[in-house]
Amino acid sequence: MAQDYESPFKPIVSGSDYLSGSEFGQVAGALLSRRDKQDKKQAQKALLASAIMETFGQLQRNQKQGVVDSINETNEKYSDVFSTNKAEFESYSDERNEVEEYNKNKKIYLNNKTTEFINGTDEVVAARVKWEDVDNQPIELRDTMYAAWNKHREELQNKMEALSKDPRVTSVSFEQFNKLAKEEYKAAIDLVKNNPTKRSLVAAAWNRIFKTKKDDGGELVTTNTELLDLQEALGTAKTNRTTFRDTIENQVVEKQLYEPLVFKPKPQNRDEINFQVIPSLQNLVKGNDKYKNVDSLFYVELIDDIVEKNPSANAQQIGEKAYSSLLKGDVDPTSYLNKQGLKIANRESLILAFDNEENKDNFINNNPFKLFQLVDAYKAQGDDGMSAYLLNKYKNIIETKKDFNPNEQEKLSNVQRIRGKLDRKIHKSILKDTDALGVLSANVAYAENYFKSENLNWKDTYTEVELKEAATTFILSNMVTNPTEIRMTQADLLAFRKDCLSHMRGTDEKR
Q1: Do 374 and 390 form a contact (C-beta atoms < 8 A)?
Q2: For residue 110, is pLDDT > 90?
Q3: Is there a contact between 152 and 183 (Cβ–Cβ < 8 Å)?
Q4: At CA 333, angle to CA 331 and CA 338, rounded to 5?
Q5: How many other C-beta atoms are found inside a 10 Å radius of the C-beta of residue 377?
Q6: I need a labelling partner for 44 at 20 to 30 A (CA). Which of 59, 175, 257, 334 fits?
């Protein structure tokens, strides 16, 4: 029991106003002292009455003492309950203040408290930084601090939402918090004081004889409606307080939706940085064949990555880091193949190979698709005369493929399929250039039709969709190393072979 809590309950002591046989005893003594025969008879009656009344008096005293004891026990029991409740309510004064502050402006509260927490963590103290300086830290420490921020902020939000529903916090006074316990106490006292079986010996006897019945277990239970009402009132009060305590001790608070804060580096003037850095980088690596035909978008992406990792770096520092990455080979320009490099590689390699071939007919080798590629390459360079010459000289080869003429819808379908397979970041420049996509789309068509011409029974093994998918994969896989290759073979379609798939499924089933 709390030491500073004065119990409102006072113990009850039994009184002395009970039935007594002492007066009858005194009368009997007086009568016996007389010699009259009639007086002796009266004395015997008085003695009998004295014995009977003394017995009833003792029973009544015992009954009333039992009531007093029950009241004192009830007082003691609920005195402890009230003291515990008071101590518990008072211990949550800080939480009540915090919830009041939280409800004024939840975002400001969460941000301020989270900042205080992060600045006190071992990692931040060891690193000798504060949250206010997070954007000036290396990316590893920044990411760690960002993650810790969001984690603690979410946990704090859930904690405050739970406290906002806790009766120890939401109750405006101890009296309100203790209300159900007090109601249970009053019901318990009423049952003790007003129990009809405890009021008199006659009432007790009457209840035992006439207001009881046997329950299913054969035990006697009361049928006294007044007693039953008192018992029901106490039962209801107990249930209410038990339910109230359960809401405290077994709190189940639904977690609130938490939206993590997205931290972005402080904005820098990227245009100004690019203007200062990119020309210098291009000049420094202009003699390196590795970076030939790499346009400015390659350098823009390189600088973006450096700025993201070093948000406080100035233009000079960014330029130094970028140049160091190029020298060390940390970035591979072939993975960021630019649109101009793709188109030049496709055209120049074809034209150069054709020009170096002594026997031009051997180069074309009756392959109309190689001829179509070569004609496209000369057209792209603006040499329409050479394109017309080739079409005229090898018109007999072209005649064999009169049916090959991919329409606009097929070209668009190829472009869409290509877009779906290219990496949005690595191939950003290609994806933005319709001319480069057109080169790839044409090569997909060439590869598909080359395969059909070399495998006339292709429909027995593949569907049209499978063939287009395989041709797209084939062209993109050769995009960097051999951009003019369109001779797709059976080996390039193994993943789509029906007999191969059924064989693999059969093997799996046996396993």
Answers
A1: yes
A2: yes
A3: no
A4: 140
A5: 23
A6: 59
The HSE-up count of residue 243 (CA atoms within 13 Å, CB side) is 8
User: How far apart (Å, rounded) are the C-alpha atoms in residues 339 and 422?
Assistant: 13
Closest CA to 335 of 243, 444, 423, 268: 423
Q: Are 145 and 80 a contacting pair, CB within 8 Å?
A: no
Tell me which of 38 and 510 has the higher pLDDT. Answer: 38
> Per-residue pLDDT tens for 48-89?
555 555 555 555 565 566 667 677 777 777 788 888 888 888
In 3-state terms, what secondary structure has residue 189? helix
Predicted TM-score (pTM) of the model is: 0.42
Whole-angstrom distance, CA of residue 271 vs CA of residue 425: 19
Q: Rounded mean pLDDT of 223-231?
A: 66
Residues 292, 298, 302, CA angle at the centre, nearest 5°?
125
Give the three-state DSSP class for 229: helix
* Mean pLDDT of all residues in 224-248: 71
Query: If you average pLDDT over residues 335-357, what whole number do you get?
Result: 66
Helices (H), 120-257: 122-127, 139-163, 167-170, 174-177, 179-193, 201-210, 225-249
* Lookup result for tokens 């015997």: 44
pLDDT tier at 301 (50, 70, 90 boundaries)?
confident
**215-239: burial string, b at 16+ Cβ within 10 Å, e else:** eeeeeeebebeebeebeebbeebee
Residues 191 and 88 sit within 8 Å (Cβ to Cβ): no
The Cα 331–Cα 481 span in angstroms is 17
pLDDT score at 206: 47
Q: Are strands 212-214 and 220-222 parallel, antiparallel or unpaired?
A: antiparallel
